[in-house]
Amino acid sequence: MRNQVKHFINGEWIESTGSETIDVVNPATEEVMGKISSGTNEDLDKAVAAAKAVLPTFSNSTREERIQWLHNIVEGYKKRKDEFIEVMTDELGAPLSVSEEVHYNMGLGHFSHAAEALESFSFSENRGGHTVLKETIGVSGLITLWNFPTNQTSTKIASAIAAGSPVVLKPASKTPFAAMMLAEIIDEAGVPKGAFNLVNGTGSVIGDGISSHRDIDFVSFTGSGSVGEKIMQNAAQTIKKVALELGGKSPLIVLDDANVEEAAKSAVSHMMTNTGQVCSAATRILVPTSLKVQFEEAVQKVLPSFPVGDPRKKGIATGPLVSEDQWETVQSYIEKGEKEATLLIGGTGKPEGLEKGYFAKPTVFTDVSNDMVIAQEEIFGPVTTILTYDSLDQALDIANDTIYGLAGYVIGKNPEKLRDVASKIKAGRITVNDADTDFHGPFGGYKQSGIGREWGDFGIEEYLEVKSVHGMPS
Ligand code: NAD
Q1: pLDDT per position as a tens digit, 17-28
Q2: What's the CA-to-centroid distance between 169 and ligand 1, angstroms?
Q3: Angle at which helices 177-188 and 151-163 cross, to 10°
Q4: Could you tell me if the CB of 204 is within 6 A of ligand 1?
Q5: Structural domains of the chain, with CATH
């Protein structure tokens, strides 16, 4: 049992002013694996005061100091690799290989790439008639959710350190322990006291408190659209800048010259990786009508190579959903899908032999039309939908007929068509033929998928204000 009921404030682990705690449940066993404190507004005020107090010196730290802190964090992070993997497998239910290859690596990548981006980042630019200066925005409040415990926290923290912005982080209460490890690593990295603070607690107290706090200048949030909306409303009271990383319902367009087996593997990988709890996952698979049957067969063939089971067992590709609530939500979408489309694989209930734990059956719907609920709403589970198209223009119309715009994918051979699709999908990140992700590339959404960008130099920009100086002496 991990009983970590303290908050990290002003360089120290301190008791909460309240006595309530929150249980953290291992989704594979349904057992309580630890407890955290349910922080109070007083705890939050202390953390914000510490961040505010260090702001003048932290925002004036040099580029070299910030790069050194980021490098130190990278070294500290690497030393605790095995522990990170174990913790994320237990709190999130990610298979050990996913905790290592996806979660551990993404968290690490953000710190090292922020250090690299900072090397050449321009904080001052002479533009002829004026000079542009980029200065720390102030104190930042960070609110994250559970599906990528180190990725989301790390990208925000790394960018904030690079920009010299002190932060108060509220990690998701379902997966707080990896974030608490980060606090220890940041402390050991020599980051000044008060520049990084972590307060655990509920969204309704600490999350709400951050978004409405008078002494917080910027809020960076990752989570659902409904909470994003509340955060904007709260932030409006103090005209606070917000960055929102919200949901998605991303299309994968399979071109008519694509290798069908490879395209099917990609589609299945999207639905199975992290148990489908990925905001940028492709969950609307658009295939030419002429390839529909062949594609369905290929999906059925490839699915067994993504076994579902105990995340601690070797060879398992997909673990449970994060919580009972999430399991119920996914079940209700599968029920809706069974009414409106054709069930190709899976269905409601738990997979055979996996009665304990929040495991869901990998589920594929076909004969889906884009106006169905399962094609419009984010399910956030191992569920995907197959839609057909007869022309590329129709495919693009379907792809863009959504309130979201986080990501888009295209698979095929013809370079002209690949370029055309990449430029016409209305989304913040497009991936062609399963290309590797470059950590320097911006991440964020169009439309209701969010506001702002994270990762690399674009991520650093979020934590800065822009000033123009006219008549600056040279
Ligand atoms: P959620 O919005 O309920 O929770 C996210 C965080 O917000 C948690 O820390 C929670 O405690 C906090 N919170 C809850 N109520 C709050 C309030 N009133 N004020 C401030 N903070 C509050 O998230 P969820 O529904 O569990 O997560 C799923 C959603 O997150 C999906 O829509 C998914 O697509 C999205 N997501 C987006 C990205 C991205 O980068 N775009 C990444 C991952 C997940």
Answers
A1: 999 999 999 999
A2: 14
A3: 30
A4: yes
A5: 2-246+449-470 (3.40.605.10), 250-438 (3.40.309.10)
